[in-house]
Amino acid sequence: RPTEKPLRVPLQDVYKIGGIGTVPVGRVETGILKPGMIVTFAPANLSTEVKSVEMHHVSLPEAVPGDNVGFNVKNLSVKDIRRGMVAGDSKNVPPQETESFDAQVIILNHPGTIHAGYAPVLDCHTAHIACKFSELLSKVDRRTGQATEDS
């Protein structure tokens, strides 16, 4: 897994732990998470310092891709951040909200046709959010990986 890419930690949960404070939990997808870093949470665009990083109740000097970690953050409440948000390094390509993106989407058991304007709920990492297809670029056969139709 890529440690040299910008840090991305999709949040699975956020806890308030007595005597410690706010602890977001998630799996590091890319980059490295370390105590002392300033992280930004998207799409809220909130930044704060990471006080500590733990995995299975053991304090870590750093967390790498694949690690499921909890990290204590300064001055944020559990009301400020939530599941589905993404944490990243404020100083290295921080994550940000976007209006649109290209995606390869796998459709499971869908009756009827899928077309521009279709509005499904998308699951992406830990986010579960409504979106709208503005255009279909192509359809791909999952068995072969080949485009069967180009729009």
From TrEMBL:
Pfam families: GTP-eEF1A_C, GTP_EFTU_D2. Signal peptide: none annotated. Residues 100-149 form the GTP-eEF1A C-terminal domain. It is found in: Cytoplasm. The keyword Protein biosynthesis applies. This is Elongation factor 1 alpha. The keyword Calcium does not apply. GO terms for molecular function: GTP binding; translation elongation factor activity. Keywords: Cytoplasm, Elongation factor, GTP-binding, Nucleotide-binding, Protein biosynthesis. Residues 21-86 form the Translation elongation factor EFTu-like domain. GO terms for cellular component: cytoplasm. Its main location: cytoplasm.
